[in-house]
Specification:
It is built from nine helices and five strands, in the order βαβααααβαβααβα. By secondary structure, it is α/β, with parallel strands linked by helices.
């Protein structure tokens, strides 16, 4: 008899391949919620944008939406400001994600800053996506058009995935080969079904 409600987080460093893993899981018919998508919903929430502007000053666009580039520039150069942003934003995101994962079955949630915020305790288990740091730096530079130092700043502001043990979780190594990654994810899903049946 399967547990009635199982919540599995999907996490990893920036540019590790979390979204690709989440997409593969979704293709298998599972319910998957992305904290990034929840966050994008918050960007259209006037009270949220106002609370950020109150804390960080001129970070609004002319139409009243949040200027994410300006905000990123502020927080990625100052760990204290990043903590303030996270303390305002993350509880709202995780609460909305938890509402999505109600009901019977196995639910997955892509959570970028899971370990930084201590949210792993809210989940039954975690899929940790690991990828070579140099590959992550290169992809981040290409994706966001930033230089190497800026990319390193962003990666180093996150949880240190290279020097941590994840023995109690499901670990998936992303070698950037989609066929390999898919087979690894399917193997993890088989383990999850067995572990929570």
């Amino acid at each position: 008899m399967m547990q009635s409600n199982v919540k599995i987080a999907i996490t990893g460093g920036i540019c590790s391949g979390k979204s690709t893993v989440a997409k593969i899981i979704k293709e298998q018919g599972y319910s998957v919620v992305s904290c990034d998508e929840v966050y994008h919903g918050l960007l259209n929430d006037k009270s949220y944008v106002n609370s950020i502007a109150k804390e960080f000053g001129n970070v609004k666009n002319d139409d009243g939406t949040l200027n994410r580039e300006k905000l990123a520039e502020i927080v990625f150069n100052d760990k204290n400001k990043l903590q303030v942003l996270n303390s305002v934003t993350h509880p709202q995101i995780i609460n909305r994600a938890m509402q999505f994962m109600r009901g019977y079955g196995i639910f997955f949630c892509e959570v970028p800053l899971l370990f930084e915020e201590g949210y792993e305790v809210l989940f039954d288990n975690v899929i940790v996506v690991l990828r070579n740091k140099e590959e992550r730096i290169c992809e981040l530079m290409q994706r966001t058009k930033i230089n190497r130092n800026q990319a390193l700043l962003r990666i180093n502001s996150q949880f240190d995935y290279e020097n941590h043990s994840f023995v109690k979780y499901y670990v998936t190594h992303n070698d950037c080969n989609l066929i390999n990654l898919r087979s690894k994810v399917l193997a993890v899903l088989d383990r999850i079904k067995k572990d929570y049946k």
